[in-house]
Structure formats: C-alpha cells, structure tokens
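Customer ticket, subject: "Can you confirm the structure for Aldehyde dehydrogenase?"

Message body: Hello, I'm evaluating your service for our small team and ran a test protein. I'd like someone to confirm that this is what the system normally returns, since I don't have a reference to compare against.
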Amino acid sequence: MSQATLSHSNGSVTHVSSIKSFTPSDIGRIIPAQKAKSLELRLSTAKERITKLKKLKNVIFKYQTEIQKALHADFHKSAREVDISEILPTIGEINDAIKHVKSWMRPVNVSTPITLLGSVSKIVYEPKGVCLIIAPWNYPFHLAVAPIAAAIAAGNTIVLKPSEFTPNTAAIIKTMLAEIFQENEVAVFEGDVSVSTALLEQPFDHIFFTGSTPVGKVVMEAAAKHLTTVTLELGGKSPTIVADDADLKLAAERIMWGKFLNAGQTCVAPDYVLIPKAKVDKFVSFAKEATEKYFKSKEDKFAENPDFCRIINSKNFGRVSSYIDEAVKKGAKVAFGGKLKADENFIAPTILTDVPLDAKIMEDEIFGPLLPIVTYDHLDDAIKIINDKPKPLALYIFSDKAKTAKYILNRTSAGGSVINDVILHLVNSNLPFGGINHSGHGSYHGLFGFKAFSHERSVLQTPKLSIVKLMYPPYTGFVKMIVDSTTRFFV
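Agent reply: Thanks for trying us out. I re-ran your input and got the following:
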C-alpha cells in the first residue's frame, strides 16, 4: 500500500494511506458480490435510500477539513474554493435527492390509446444494477461523490474509480465511503489506467464517465462490447459571445471569475471569448481590474496568492504553457499575465488577444487559466466560428437584448447555455447537465441524475376483454374493416 501526503498551512505533513491498487481477483470477487446485492437493492424503499443519502451527507461534514487538506495537497486548492466548488454542490445534490427521491421512485401513469381501450399504462423506474463511475481529477471530490448520490437514490451498487492524479482526495473518499458502506454496495478501486482498463472489461449495467473526449471514446468503445449503457460527461471548447450591446464590465467580471476558478481546470469554463473588434481594449481593461480584485494581487504576484490553485501536474503544465508560446509565434499578444513557474506547476491568469483561429489554443480544450480573445465584425461571423467546431458543452452569451440572445441560441447548439453569466447552470438541479455529441452523451443532476442511473421500464396491463382480439387471425373481411377503420380514425 502506497502513501499520499497532506500538506498543512503550518508546513507539517500528514501521511495518509492511499487506496491500494485492486487486483483482478479483487475485481472478480467484488463485482459478483455487487451483482447479488443489486438484486436486493431493487426492492429498497425510498426511506432506506434516504437513510443512506443522509449518512453520505453526514460523513462529508465529518471529513470536511480532511477533504480541504487533501485537495490542497493534490493541487494547492484553497479551503474556501473547496467548499464552494466541491462540497457545496455535492451537498446540494444530496439534499435534492433526499427531498425528492420518494416522488422520483413512484410509477408514472401515462395515457393509453383508444386502440388499447381498457388497458392501463405506466412507467416504472428500476435500478440499472452494478454501475461503474469513473471520476476525473479536476473536481475530484464533487465529480465522484455527486454521481454516487444519484446512483444511490436510484438503488444501484457502485464501483468508483477515482483519478490517480489526486491520490489524497481519493484516499479521503475511500475512507469516508468505507465508513458507511460495505464493498458489496460501494467499492473504490484506485490505481492507474491499467485499473480502469481492467474494470472496463467487465459487463457493468451502466458506466458513468467524466473526463476528456478522447478517453470518452475509449469508454464508449469498451461499453459497446457488452452493450452497456453509458453517460459521458465530456468537455470541449465552450465559447463566450460578448455581443455589441453587452455590459462590458459585467461581462468581464463574470467571465474572469468562471475562467480562473480552479485555475481554468473546469469542463464548462469559458474557453475563448468572441467580441467585436472595437470592444477588445475596454474589455481587457475591465478583465484585468476584475482579476486583480478577485485575487488581491497585481499580475506579477499571483503565485503568492493562496486562493489560486496550480495545474494538476507537470505534464498538463507543459501542455497548457505551450499554447502561449505557439499562439504568440502566430501573432497573438499577451495582454495580461503570462507568468510561469514550472517547479510549482503555476500558470498565472493570462489573457491573449489577436489570437488566430488556426492556433492550437483554438483547437484543443485549454483546461488552464488562459483566455484567448477572438474578434468579429458581425454577429453571424462569431456564430460561424462556433458552428465550425464540434458542439460544445456550454455556450455563454452576454447581451442586454433578449432578441440578440435568442438569435444566438437559435443558430447554435450546445449542452447548456447561460445568458449574462457563466457556469451557473450547474447550480440548478432542475436543469439537466450534459453535453451533445462531441461534448457528451446523457445528462444528470437532480431528477436527471436519478434517471441516468435508472431504467425506465414500460408496463402495460390489459383487461381480459381486449379489443385487440378483434384483429387476431384468420384475417377475414371483418378484420380488414376493423383495421381500416382503426387506421383511418384512431391511429
């Protein structure tokens, strides 16, 4: 068993035993046990599921300080940002499930056509069974535990594979879950990509993956071998259009907050900004002002600010920092920031202007604190730039005119959108969160999370005397008359 470390603000270090890498024999033991348990959980009541959700919520509060320390040790994330972006939304999802799971579980009666007169139709929500959840490193707590809450609400057993890039957070999650669940109900498998590969060879009843589009394709291919259903929460280049009529100061403040949250390592972070040429200088000025206000630092002092986290590892540091060099070589200008500290995996909040569309930063999902700005002359030019790329996970629109926002929405496609803000559609559990095509398949949050981990089973009950019997063979002239009449008047 390896060890992870928790670094404290006073300089001391606590060693935390990390989750061991499970072996094939562990997989062969645990998954059949979960399969058997899943048959039992199919009969679980709303009360029983609520009890489990409450235990999950309570154990989060119990370990809140340890969660904060783990995320700081993994990539220098501040305690307050942990509370805001990891713990608060997770508790929100759990509370929503506690409040509504009883009503979610009820069968839904639906209308029955007159051709089935006397029959009763309903939709029954049943657990999918044994579910694999593969969590990413960027929000390693929230994006592991929130799907678990949805899977519990739906009555499933769960195998969780946390990211190996955040071992301290994985260790705390393992400790918490082991405290309230047996491994035949919730099990955590830690390890590198080989563990994920071994798990993906198993015939799970559902796979819930959050991560990059390239890895999403691998997951989908593996699931196809077993015809396993999947929910893929991916990413892509989420654009922001600042319309000519937008409030520039408001737009700058909100875009900078969303862009530099978690050092830009957010799947729905504004990836690039499209803005009228005449507005660029003023926007950049407001953006600088907002960023320095948020972090109480001038641009050359951001590395000293405790509220600005680091890039997850040296590999990603190299990838993100290379976008600056390549864009500048192609004519882009660093309008703000650009400071790097390789030994800390630190990249300062950075704004790039005059960015050409063929720069790598405009092709790859950035996943870092770089904001490229692209100008346009006409709104339709901006829309074309968006539509020439794969469909994004999010699209943000800043405009003071409802007509302008509607014009953009009607001519683009995205997993979700926010008008005059960014990211906040995630907060509303009554909205489905998910991508489209390249940016994901399926959605979750609230009822949509419950449905993601449920099978909507159709049930039709017919009476002893059914009019369908009139259409049984032999196909006489009378049967022909009945079919013709039904086709013309009732179908």
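A couple of notes from the result: The domain at 239-429 is CATH 3.40.309.10 (Aldehyde Dehydrogenase; Chain A, domain 2). The first strand starts at residue 3 and ends at 7. Feel free to reply with more questions.
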